[in-house]
Amino acid sequence: MALGKLNNMVCEKAEVREKRYFLTDGDGLSLQIEPTGRKIWKLRYYIDGKQKMASLGTFPVVSLKEARIAAAKARVDLADGLAPGGKGKRKGADQAFQALALDWHEKIHAMQVVPSHADRNLSRIKNLILPHLGEHHPDDITPPMVLDMLLKICDSGRIETAHRVKSIISLIFRYGISTGRAQRDPTQDLAGLIPSYKTEHFPAILDKAELGGLLRALDQYGGSVIVRSAARFLPLVFCRPGEMLSMRWQDINPEEALWYRTTTKTQTEMISPLSRQAMQILAEVHSLTADGEFVFPALRGKGRMLSNTSIKAVLDSLGYAGKMTAHGWRAVARTHLVETLNFPESVVEMQLGHRVKDALGRAYNRTTFLEQRTGMVQQWADWLDELRAMPAPSSPASAPGEQNAWNQWRA
């Protein structure tokens, strides 16, 4: 069948129907019209007697002329016994995008983030990315191919997931470029082409009286000692929950009350001072978990850290479902440290693990504001004690029980 049945006006004015339908251009090329209004170029071809369909991008990002050129190139591949898009052009599965993606995850990503985050992204790679791109060589993956995949995710209502998948693909390609396995990152051409999404903020309680009630409720929680300790420790350090749950005993310096950690979002190494109240909780947990790797280990499954759902379960069981989250303590701390306790935003942001830069645009190192942050976290812990309507101890010596637990650990 000859080409030329379609023109740009027909493509632009194609009506949206309740069911998917096709506008045929000829010789296997057609424009697929989705009920959502999305228009996808499709090429019908045959391999080993079986009919298959290849996506050539979306209209109008890929014009009618460009679709015809892409279809012509695909037919050249077919004449050589190759599927459209270059499948099989480069021999060896170790050169396919799948190998690059899994290599990046194992050698880079899984080493930089907490296990739960690494597992989520591995699931996205295997279930959302590799079925569409896995068999292609990285250099054969084009912006239209990636865009088509991302828009399919958007069509299913998972717009935020599509943005996360795009970021993952970009990181994989950047790794491929640095290791000589890819020439460029096709996601760089997709800026503004997938729908934006509205970020939902984590629920957080800012009222002082309500915060006091929540803190008292956490103290009286009757569940596991490890879970209760983690739930009480988090307000004192107000880091990202995954960073606290992945805390290892080797990361703690009990003599100087310091925690050496890497932030999960910016991958910044930093030193976090710990208040006397935080050290007291660690001292109590030390007698229970010091023989393992994690400070707050999972209740079941040796060698695993406590799940973030455990903290959520505590808050939900205390009646705070939809009102407060583990991540919400960061908003609480940032608000009251700046507005109530009058600490400089730069110091607070540094303690939150955000990337803080000096006047010349250089990121501060992990020891920046350490002295100020040491005083800040202690004042913060004392202020939380005041919210409980209990007098804050002025020094370790004023609380014999606390000093005994701490000294036993240090010994």
TrEMBL record:
One protein family per Pfam: Arm-DNA-bind_3
Domain Tyr recombinase: 201-377
Region (Disordered): 391-411
One term of GO molecular function: DNA binding
Matches recorded under InterPro entries: DNA_brk_join_enz, Integrase-like_cat_sf, Integrase_catalytic, Integrase_DNA-bd_sf, Integrase_DNA_bind_dom, Integrase_recombinase_N, Phage_int_M, Phage_Integrase
Feature: compositional bias, Low complexity: 391-400
Coiled coil: none
Alphabetical keyword list: DNA integration, DNA recombination, DNA-binding
Protein family (similarity comment): Belongs to the 'phage' integrase family.
Protein name in the entry: Integrase arm-type DNA-binding domain-containing protein
